Amino acid sequence: MAALATRVSRRANALVWLVLSAILIVLDQWTKHVVLGHLQEGVPIPVVPGFLNWMLAFNTGAAFSFLADAGGWQRWGFSALAVLISLVLTVWLARTPRRDWLTALPLSLVVGGAIGNLIDRLRFGHVVDFIQVYHGDWTFPAFNVADSAISVGAVLLALASLRSAKEEGLGR
């Protein structure tokens, strides 16, 4: 009976959420394919004047071009980090009950985003960015679908952790 319960609990884990990760990877790579075929690097195409442009940019660094001029090691360093993070989060998904979507959703978003950008680093040596948000002279660094998934996933994960900590504090 215990063996059956173990098999059922394994099947009821949140690994099914990796389907969302796969969808994000496909969407991310498709959008990058489109922009690489239609945009010129550094030439903005207004989408919402005064707020949003499509603008092709190549990022050899991490988020917000952090370490972009670090000499080349970052391609492999950030690639290894993406693999490690994806593996850790996948194990976390395997240990998360399927019904715990407040944990599974953000984990799957981060995994999909990390792998989307990993593919770019391995194929091109840089990440393809194309969404530019700005206002007046202020410009947010260009980003992509994968970056958006990572950011939203990280925020949701932080909120879930706060919720969990609050619930634990109430239970005492």
Key terms:
single chain, 172 residues, alpha+beta, 4-stranded antiparallel sheet, 5 helices, 60% helix, 13% strand
Query: What's the total helix number?
Result: 5
Largest sheet entry: 4 strands, antiparallel
Radius of gyration: 19 Å
The count of domains is: 1
Spatial sequence of strands, sheet with the most strands: 1-2-3-4
Shape: globular
Would you mind describing this structure in some detail?
- By secondary structure, the chain is α+β, with helices and mostly antiparallel strands.
- It has one domain (13-49, 84-170).
- Helix content is 60%, strand content 13%.
- The protein contains five helices and four strands; from the N terminus they run ααββααββα.
- Strands 1-2-3-4 form a four-stranded antiparallel β-sheet.
- A hairpin with a 2-residue loop joins β3 and β4 (138-139).
- It is globular, with a radius of gyration of 19 Å.
